[in-house]
TrEMBL record:
Keyword set, alphabetical order: Carbohydrate metabolism, Glucose metabolism, Signal
Family: Belongs to the cycloisomerase 2 family.
Transmembrane segments: none
Signal peptide: 1-20
Protein name, per record: Lactonase family protein
Gene Ontology MF terms in the entry: 6-phosphogluconolactonase activity
Organism of derivation: Pseudotamlana haliotis
Amino acid sequence: MHYKHLVLLVLAVFSSKNYAQNIPLYVGTYTNEDAKGVYHLQFNTETGTLSKQQLAIEIDNPSFLQYSPDRKYLYSTNATNNGFVSSYTVNEDGSLTLLTRMRSHGELPCHISLNKTGNLAAVSNYRGGTLALFPINKDGSLNDASQIFDHNSEGTKSHAHSAHFYNDDLFVADLGTNSVFQYELKKGAYKLDTDAIVKTKDNPGPRHFTMTKDGAFIYVINEIGSSITSIKRSGNKFKEIDFDSTLETDYKGKNASADIHLSNDEKFLYATNRGENTIAVFERNLKKGTIEKVQNVSVHGDWPRNFAMDPTGKFLIVANRRSNNLAVFKIDQSNGTLTFLQDYKTPTPVCLLF
């Protein structure tokens, strides 16, 4: 082979490998400070470094982000007093083009999730206390809400905080009513199956939750109680099996727990603490579903809200809202513990999406 051709081949291989190592990361923000909308970055899955931050689209308060199943479209809540939900086309350069913008049918929408086929989005309206279901067209655009659920009552103010589909079921965490609700799909519409899947004690404030892939266990992070409620599911019966603090035993300050995720292998559970400014790491009993604390590690920032693990499962990135930075951690695959690597300045980050 000619020397020139060999050099070109080596460069091409190196370039291809380097490109494969870098994957997109979208960051949702609050735009009442320095942020302008949704940001797009490159994340290196070998080194854990972030680079090439660009504004993907200028839009108000894109507080939570979600992909379509084919990743051709992206969806966001727009956490305003009026409340909006938006859909976007994902362009080849990482920028976003607005497709539709709809009223969210509630104030301060804070969470959005899609069902497995990608034809329905569930939007949680925190201040309005409502959950709205939006049909999604094949071109990624949104139709107006087909169903709206109002959890408010005469004596209780609802704060719907998150919702997730599992097969044909829809689960909703409501901080205001201290409940996790289950909705079932019946004759093409969702209907409330039970008042709450488990009874809560005191005022824990369920915020977000995560489920095992088989749907057998649900882990709920409680914002007010700084705790995790572990739930076992058998058919349509639910039982609380564990209740754990997310804080260090000697921490006495104010705290508001935020986000929760399982590791890819489901051996470990992670949760963020706003106030203590830590990530709590738990080891999970794969058979029983119970959890045990193994670490509380500083987030190297202030007010950690959302966090995400990269697709390889080797890194965890935290969005520190008040300190305007993303903190990158290496995950120990054997025991789940985290080691801080570096941080990256980003304006008012509140949601991360790989």
